[in-house]
Input
Amino acid sequence: MSLKNGQAGFTLVEMLVSLALASLIVTALMSVYWSANSLFTRQSADSEAQYGARSAMQRVVDDVRVATLAPVVVDNNTKLVLTQSSGRVEYYRNTINNDLYRSFGGNVVPVAEGITYLYFSNAVNPLIITIEATVEGKPYRLSSSAAYRVGGN
Output
């Protein structure tokens, strides 16, 4: 700050330098914010896909374990039909919206979203199940086996 003719204040050059420094600081802070926000969004999407695939896998495994007859695998190993004491249960993937559905007693319920791959083995017992969810081109694949109750015991 310089004094001239008894007046106090900032010169134009000092104001421009201050404004330039403030702009650099704000730009740096916004860049850090956008990077952190982008990372958070990606991590949230990954977590959601992983949770969906894990919960879908658990639901299928639980249903296979209470099946009273051998599971029937159809449609190129992408549809599973189970017979339980309470009725018939089907699992299949809608290839249009990549959702996994469970059908039971005429009711169709979505189990998981974003399932890009679904495979059921034709093995007799245990049944091998593979589920894959893809988020932003990054696949998350799970495989599990489940044995049904032989003879309905």
Helices lie at 12-65. The first strand starts at residue 72 and ends at 74.
